[in-house]
Specification:
20 helices; 0% strand; globular
């Protein structure tokens, strides 16, 4: 029965890509064209090419299904007044608390809203900075606030089960699990957030304090405003953890089951007025219909990118594997710590040449030797991959987080990725390298 559903999912993904070719951006069409080239190469070189194509489509279907599950939560959160009020409160903190508030906000909002966290908090921060009359201070403040949001968000990708980084890596690396990797991965996130705070502090100390500033703080609410977000964060993760413990399913499967149900319940709660159940039904139906027939269609470009990244990575790694498994690369002659550090740094390096982190993981991970052959836990590889994923996400000019920050700051993605975050990436990479080497001895 499982194989039947896998086949159906593969067919649906293939049909979706074909019917979506019209009106696609050139970059997306290049991805699709690359996929067709790899299919031809597979037919020529791989005797079991039908199985390989189906397996690649299954990877694509998994990525698409996970994306749509998470977008349910983003859809529900987009209409929550509590979420918006909380974001406005965090963005309007006084200078001494602002960076910490936005880093934590970017981190927690990222779990709930994914990239919508950058759009929401980033736009609120940029809007608040515009109230500053002094142009020099306005630019500095905008940069600091946007970087705080981005660094908090990107740290979240190290550990959250509601991210592609954790979902994809734990589905590829045999023997790994979110529960087994969660604590060291969360410490990776703490390392990046603390680094972000330190860099902001040193940057602030270099600012000319003699410049007069009209730092108008317009607070809307108190710290109690943040409580709904914290409650939502704790409740959702507790729900996922409990369901995983009870069902013994992988975390990614639990997320794909729980999140849409949770999102629907949240929408119902938002529309509930305690009086007319008919209106509640109509409004909820409208939201669900709008998501299925409008939002998913609007996600076409993002879906094609994610689908083709998984497809290309899976296809390419299988085509390359016979050559890698020969004497070209002898992993047994390379120290284990160097392999783990190499995995970590390979992610941000490939990101500089436009390789999507999803594509990079699907390409790199299957080529790695088994964790047992390296003498480490599979979760140590997860730690290296997710740490590298975070660094790629903040430094690559081609990732969504960098593109969003660049758009809000009115600068180029290369400037945002390399100039704004170059020092953060290099320092964070060194710290995470030491952390990966250290923790691999104990996992």
């Amino acid at each position: 029965m499982g194989n039947f559903f896998y086949l159906i999912a593969s067919i649906i993904i293939g049909v979706f890509v074909l019917i979506s070719l019209n009106n696609l951006q050139l970059s997306r069409k290049i991805f699709v064209f690359t996929g067709f080239i790899l299919i031809i190469l597979a037919i020529i070189k791989i005797p079991t090419w039908p199985n390989l194509i189906q397996s690649s489509l299954q990877s694509s279907a998994f990525v698409a299904a996970f994306f749509l599950s998470l977008s349910c939560l983003r859809n529900a959160a987009s209409s929550s007044q509590a979420i918006e009020k909380c974001g406005e409160f965090l963005a309007n903190q006084n200078p001494s608390k602002r960076c910490l508030a936005l880093i934590l906000g970017g981190h927690i909002y990222g779990i709930i809203l994914s990239y919508g966290a950058i759009s929401l908090l980033g736009s609120l921060a940029e809007r608040g900075a515009r109230r500053e009359a002094n142009i020099e201070i306005r630019k500095i403040r905008t940069k600091r606030m946007l970087l705080a949001v981005q660094r908090g968000f990107i740290a979240m990708t190290c550990w959250s089960p509601l991210t592609f980084s954790v979902a994809i890596t734990t589905s590829i690396i045999d023997g790994s699990s979110w529960s087994g990797a969660a604590i060291p991965c969360f410490i990776s996130a703490l390392i990046l957030m603390i680094l972000g705070l330190l860099l902001d502090f040193f940057h602030k100390s270099k600012i000319n304090v003699n410049i007069n500033s009209n730092d108008l703080i317009r607070k809307t609410g108190s710290w109690n405003t943040v409580m709904p977000l914290i409650f939502l964060f704790i409740f959702l993760l507790s729900l996922i953890g409990s369901a995983q413990y009870i069902t013994n399913l992988r975390a990614v499967a639990v997320v794909m089951l729980i999140v849409p149900i949770f999102s629907l319940a949240w929408i119902i709660y938002q529309n509930y007025n305690g009086k007319d159940t008919k209106i509640l039904y109509i409004r909820t139906k409208e939201r669900v219909s709008g998501y299925i027939f409008k939002d998913i269609v609007n996600y076409k470009s993002e879906l094609i990118l994610l689908i083709m990244a998984a497809f290309i990575g899976t296809m390419a790694s299988s085509i390359i594997a016979p050559y890698i498994n020969s004497d070209v690369i002898n992993f047994s002659s390379i120290p284990t710590w160097l392999v783990l550090v190499g995995i970590l740094w390979l992610m941000p390096i490939t990101g500089q040449i436009g390789m999507n982190p999803i594509l990079a993981v699907y390409l790199i991970a299957p080529l790695l030797p088994q964790a047992a052959n390296l003498g480490v836990s599979p979760n140590a590889i997860i730690l290296a991959l997710t740490s590298g994923w975070a660094l790629s996400g903040i430094s690559s000019p081609y990732t969504a987080s960098t593109l969003l920050i660049a758009d809000l700051a009115k600068i180029t993605p290369i400037h945002a990725g390399l100039k704004w975050n170059g020092l953060f990436t290099l320092t964070g990479g060194l710290l995470l390298s030491f952390w990966v080497i250290f923790i691999s001895q104990f996992l």
